[in-house]
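Render this sequence as a predicted structure.
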Amino acid sequence: MTKMMFSGLCALVLLIGLSFTEIHSLQVDTNKSTIKWEGNKVTGSHQGTIQIHSGSLDIHDGYLTGGTFTIDMSSIKCTDLEGGGAAKLEGHLKSPDFFGVEANPTAKLAITKVSSRGTTGDFKVVGDLTIKNITKEIKFNAQLQEDMGATTVTADITIDRTDFDVRYGSGSFFDNLGDKTIYDDFTLKVKVVGM
């Protein structure tokens, strides 16, 4: 091997090493991160929260490049009702009619592809979402901000629950539901803080 080839090889190895050192995997701060959900029906809507159990964000030179998240399905809360009304709805959402939490205690999201939308901190995200042991690809937009050592990613995500065998009250599968119809789509307003 000539001296020039050896020098070139060393430079290549150095560049590869530097590129890897610029990728940061940040642990999700579950106390500062939030997920707010909303589901709609013919006669109104319900809102609530659900907790992130654990996760990580992959950041490279200020760009979101990946991430994985585990959601604690047993933490489903209803925030627009009080007392027995909230407890009844939470219990129903955790039941086999909806998310079957006893058999499926967690949901997971793994980011598989990220591309810039052309504005700093604005990304198109593709990921694999697993609910009730069913995995489907989802797409959404996300925004990233870095401030004082913390990285925050926010996103509004729309999910078709019937993709995950959550069909209770769905007009897509049951006839003559009338005002008992629950719409298939539900939304998540997500704020993830990585440290």
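Summary. The helical segments are 3-21, 83-94. Confidence is low (pLDDT under 50) at residues 4-15, 17-21.
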